[in-house]
Model the fold of this input.
Amino acid sequence: MQVRLPLTEALDAARSSGRLPSFVVGAAPTDDGVALRVDPQGVPGLSGAVRFAASLAGPVEVVVRWVGLADGDATFAITSHARALPLHTLANMLSTTLTGILRQRGLGDLVEVRRGTEEPLLVVHVQRALDRQVPGARLVDLALAGGAAHVEVDLSGARPAGPAV
Done:
């Protein structure tokens, strides 16, 4: 099965379902990812010092850019800027906070933020998520390009996940 999902549609679905956190005040697709505008003062769990620094920095522009797929895991690089200043180091420092937010949203074992040498990495365990929803299905390919996600899944070994709810 092959699916092409325009990133504009994915963002619209995330907005309408309330899946975008409240501190994400803007989101737009790019050719190979998503550009976000974040109000860092709205990020839960920040220390007073970091919150104060965030108030001085103002809104943060975050770009989540496609890196690639390996062993069922999709990897994205995260870059961020506030008032034209790169904040990759700050984003690396906030990786624990970001991971905590993902866990609160029930995504802790499917999505992780890894500290990078320069920029943090967002790793989505796509095959693991697929295993939960459609056991026996196999992710063949996934790529982000041209403002769309292109997904190919082999369903030949798929079986029902369990009783319908």
